[in-house]
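Researcher: Next sequence.
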Amino acid sequence: DLTISFAAGLSKMGFIPIIHTIAPFMVNRGFEQIKIDFGYQKLRGKFVSIGSSYDYAALGCTHHCPEDVNLMLNIPNMQVVVPGHSKEFEKIFFKTFDYKNPFYFRLTDKENNEPVNVKFGKVAHLQKGNLLTLILVGPVLNYIDFDLLKSYNINMVYITTLRPLDTINLKKINKNIDKFLIIEPFYSSYLPTKLLEIFERRIIIKNISVPYKFLTNYGSKKDHDIKNGFFMKNIRKKLDELIQIK
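Model: Next structure:
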């Protein structure tokens, strides 16, 4: 809390502070100060976390933080970026360094194998198709067998910027699509709600995300991933089920 208030003081003096620590220490324990000092006062600052959700699973649930994205999105002017690779973070971070809004960058040391050519505030269209859209958020690409999904007539959209969300391209890409599967490495809430706002028609949304409960067991991140459905066999099953829905 004191670190965040100190950073706010630096921001008031004209500096652009960068605050970096693991997500539960920054977001959970410092949320009120982030909200009041940076959000309410409209100060510039860069909040850069690591270890969100359960990257540090071996340290137990005190080091879990799957709620960070939705918490930070509850600060109205907070810009939220979930890069899937360090090179994506580097590109967006320096391109947005002088923006007036506060920023939350959610990093991981379990990054995607390869970076995507991303732009701040824009989605990346990875594959075109007609049956449904698979939305991939940040560091989830390693779960995907892209060669296998080439045989599926589906859209694939990669999102790193959650706010501002690229609603224009989402509407354009999904003009004739009404089924969505979202894979997101945190608690689900924001994206399904935004999709329902964007499309003025009946749409079907399914998701693979961190379940809304306390994860009390120890183990590795991979152990949690498997238990929570972040693997290709389960993703393919969800896609097949969604395609069959009339």
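Model: The beta strands are 18-22, 46-50, 79-81, 103-106, 124-127, 133-137, 155-159, 161-163, 179-183, 204-208. The chain has nine helices and ten strands.
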